[in-house]
Amino acid sequence: MQPTTSTSNDLALPSIWPIYFKLVLVALLWGGTFIAGRLLAESLSPLMSAIGRFGLAVFILILLTIKLEGRLPKLSLRQVAITFTLGLTGIFTYNLFFFTALSEMPASRTALFVAFNPIATAVLVSLLYREKISFQKLLGIFVAVLGALTVISNGHLLTVIQDISQAFGHGEFSMLCAVISWAIYTVVGRKALLGLSPLVSTTYAAIWGLLLLLMMWLYSPNVQVLSELNWKVCAAIGYLAIFGTVIPFIWYYQGIKKIGAAQTSVFTNFVPLFGVLLGALLLNEQISSSMLLGGALVITGVVLTNRR
Description:
Layout: H1 5-12, H2 17-41, H3 46-69, H4 77-104, H5 107-114, H6 117-129, H7 135-153, H8 157-166, H9 170-192, H10 198-218, H11 231-259, H12 261-266, H13 270-283, H14 289-306
């Protein structure tokens, strides 16, 4: 008898799990960026924080690309336009808005807005690519977002919604703009991966983003320099560059390439969950029952969204 085609499909399914594992680690690493970013916000302006982060990240990414790819490949005009858009949205605008938000409101409140990344991404995917989102995926996104909000609000969802509506200031507006920037970055990333590896796409996006940040710094009326670098600032920049940019950005692109933009973005619901857990571990904050419930909801939502 001839073997059925389902056998090869079944054998191919386990290859998805390494991507899922990497995306969970991405969320864990990004959860730590709220602590590092908040630390930087106490010493540096949002612009200098972003320049410090991506100045070191670009240096490492270029070295990695040359070592693994042999050289930085030349880009076509189409690839230049796409990678520039990635650098503009995911590096330049996102980080300016992100660090601005962290300088004006608590890290936990900033993390609240990260939960809306999957919704914004799913809407963009549906509008731009006219892809229908199944009921199961919509349900999964809703459950994951509900879980993230439960963690951040300590179980008081109505209080958080009322608080946001009554106190939507400059910091909240900045983080909302950051969410939109990241959704565009995620969706456009699909086009970049048609002819470039995740490493090369990340490297060029970071280069473009850093150039835009440096141009803004040069033409800024109030130029700030890295005059006083203590070990905390250096450690925060190092973490943001290596564990908040180089590693997770490459893995995130691998996720987009393997399972799609909308499904990959759902894993960002783990970010506020890990942010709160890291706060409990590093700052001795108490782990509540709402955190456990919210974490269970996030996991359930991610499973529903990515169930095949």
